[in-house]
Amino acid sequence: MNADPIKVLLVEDDPGDVQLIQIALARGDIGRIECRQVDSISKAAQILGQEAFDLLLLDLSLADVWGLDTIIQVNSQVPNIPVVVLTGNDDENIALEAVKLGAQDYLVKGQVSDAMIVRTIRHAIERHHLLKDLEKQITALLHSEVRFHKMIEHNADAIIIIDQDNTIRFVNPAAEKLFKSPAEHLMEKQFTYPIIVGEDTEISLPDAKTDSAVFAEMRVVEMLWEDEPAYLASLRDITQRKEAEKSLREYTQALQARNEELDAFAHSAAHDLRNPLTLIVGFAKMLEEDYHSLSAGEIQKTMRTIALTGQKMSHIVDGLLVLAGLRNQNVELEPLDMTSIIQDVRQQLRPLIETYQPKFVMPSQWPVAIGYRPWIEQVWANYLSNAIKYGGASPTVELGANIQSNRLACFWVSDNGPGLNPEEQTCLFKPFTRLESSKNEGYGLGLSIVKRIIERLGGEVGVKSPGVSGQGSQFFFTLSIHD
Predict the structure, then answer these.
(1) Taking Cα atoms as reference points, which of 435, 434, 331, 314 lies closest to residue 374?
(2) Domain end: 237, 267, 298, which one?
(3) pLDDT band for position 441 (cuts 50, 70, 90)
(4) DSSP letters of 393-433?
(5) Which of 116, 271, 378, 452 could bond to 112 as cystine, CB 3.0-4.6 Å?
(6) Higher confidence at residue 76 or residue 397?
């Protein structure tokens, strides 16, 4: 590592981006970097004419020049300084063209870590020095092959010499490491990758041990090797950069999906809580205004309605709390006593059962599955309450289970309601969606919670319905069988 600090000239006219880059450079722990900033190419050229810098960090979207014209102007005005270009998400193709025009590398704003910025700067300087040295000295170095070998053998980049027949004539230790093969296995073999002089190309190297690929950036220059025309290929391992870019894309997509899901969740939760809350407020106001004119029976009926509605809101909140804990909560799975679980759930739903008076049909025994009891209680509570509320005029609710061939137990609840058509069935378990038809309005939040719970436990959920009134629907979920 050099004792002197690295001097970087930042050409950027966005104050926010300037601050972020300066903070990143200051926090870099690889070496001390001094950064000076200007906001135009003309100012940069003026300063570079007066003071030496190790690297130019160049934005491609300046006020006085934009796009590829920035790198063209830099090459014409200050050709002997390494350049790393900065680009936004929409400018990545332009940045790649800038690299072809002579920039050493590019960075996408907002998508790189502090360490990556510092590492890119250092590699760009080293790579620039190497290429300049090779361009200036290659003819002279050929008269002193020992000096040439020492320079490329100790280079951090992989160096490969290839003759006009695409035969490998020389590899340095870095190339052995990159190709995961000793020099004797590489020498005199065909170099099977495309050779494009003067342009950066990206190649993929298969890794037999890990069954994956290593990515490298390659730049080729023409040269003489043992008095014969040849190519010098310089390769840099960019696998980590590719993986970081892929991870960032996946994270961005997941974040976007999460935000969309949160919007839908907020709408569904507000809908489920608004109706009972409006009912409670309405009945409470009626008691406040008409209490003295109401009979004892009417008051008792009103208070009971308020209590039942409050209990419904409590169940909704309980479901939300379960949903909030599903993502990160660590739970211990155990054998489930379904008879006891269903008894507890029916006790929780007693006010609803007293109101609708459903007929229950249940088996005498249940398969023993593995799960987390509080979550499975939520599943049964959602399925049973839906079967009671959205079943037939005289609800018949049948519960059952069967063991499948894949060592899963399938538990189900059937009702005698109007049923669901195929389109409604495909929408049911989508996150926080809701059926809006008058016969089936509801389901949305509860079934999304059910789906999250069962998938977290390794099972599946679903619904079967012929869509014929009176033949109802069957909602099911699967769990692993206890050994």
Answers:
(1) 331
(2) 237
(3) very low
(4) SS-EEEEEEEE-TTSEEEEEEE--S----HHHHHHTTSTT-
(5) 116
(6) 397
- Tokens coding 380: 């049964």
Lowest average pLDDT, out of 238-242, 325-329, 460-464, goes to 325-329
Same domain, 388 and 477: yes
Q: How many CB atoms lie within 10 A of CB 265?
A: 18
Select the more confidently predicted residue: 100 or 260. Answer: 100
Rounded Cα gap, residues 244 and 202, in angstroms: 16
Specify the residue for token string 């950066």.
Answer: 200
In angstroms, the CA 26 to CA 168 distance is 43
Mean residue pLDDT across the chain: 82
Range 78-98 average pLDDT: 78
Residue 144 lies in a domain: no
Is the Cβ–Cβ distance between 415 and 463 less than 8 Å? no
Statement to judge: residues 296 and 394 lie in one domain: no
On the 0-12 / 13-18 / 19+ scale of CB atoms within 10 A, 296 is: exposed
Place 96 in a pLDDT band, splitting at 50, 70 and 90.
confident
Query: What pTM does this model have?
Result: 0.44
The answer to whether residues 104 and 44 belong to one domain is: yes
Whether 86 and 224 share a structural domain: no
